[in-house]
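Bench notes, afternoon.
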Amino acid sequence: MSKQLLVRLKKEMAPYEKAELRKSIWQLINTLLPFFGLWYLAYVSMEISYLLTLLLSVIGAGFLVRIFIIFHDCCHFSFFKSKKANRIVGTITGIITLFPFSKWQHDHAIHHATSSNLDKRGTGDIWLLTVDEYRDASILTKIAYRLYRNPFVMLVFGPIYSFLIVNRFNRKGAKRKERLNTYFTNGIIVLLYGLIIWLIGWQAFLLVQVPIFMISGTAGIWLFYIQHTFEQSYFEVDKKWEFVRAAVEGSSYYRLPKVLQWLTGNIGYHHVHHLSPRVPNYKLEKAHSQSEALQHAPLITLATSLKALKFRLWDEKKGNFVGYGALKEINRS
């Protein structure tokens, strides 16, 4: 990718990299209030029908995904102009979504700096092996990898492990401020959940919260997976790795129906987000539509995204994802 195109893309993104207080406040209102309202309605609806509770939980889960996108923007300091405001709102939305602000901000920053770089995998990304790495791996590593990449394990157990368990512990080498933020987040979650259980009972709490958590968690894992796992993606060794190509070619444009696009905070425009993380979520669509170069980003739809479930390994020679079945053909060649 030419330097001229890089300069042009930076200029095209610049007008969209400024948060607008009015839009940010309105997004907080139209996201948080419906979520809490739906949670309460799901609780009271149990006296009518638990099927109605589940329906309300599905909708509530959609709003929880949207809350996470606000949290995500705050971690990039893109939701407000003020870093302090981003930290405060990010910590609050992190409590709601079970994510410690400072810890996740650190890991996610590394993800952005190393996305699609084969020599810098392992932080803030999904475990990925190349064809050669898998072929040379031990039996135990192959079993672990197959379990990890299994759709059921990834989408059902993934949220429980990643969001509910891993998020509760500090990373090795975390600084004091980051560790305190994790302790604070965990403490408030315990107090908040304890208060709700004291008010409505643990059975009612679990009957409402578990479906919301699992549905939103599965959706979150899936979104992160499909944003970087598609057949003609981009992965390179460090010496050949290019930031702009990683953003535009290694991140997908996931075109969703308008309702799902709204609930997921336009994160389907993931190529724009990786190109310029300072663009708040409510400006991603416009930034994409105003750039001719970004019109050529890898397009994925709901229907075509399902094909990504068969992708398991990165083939460095062909430059695309393959399934385990391709190993036989590769071994014969």
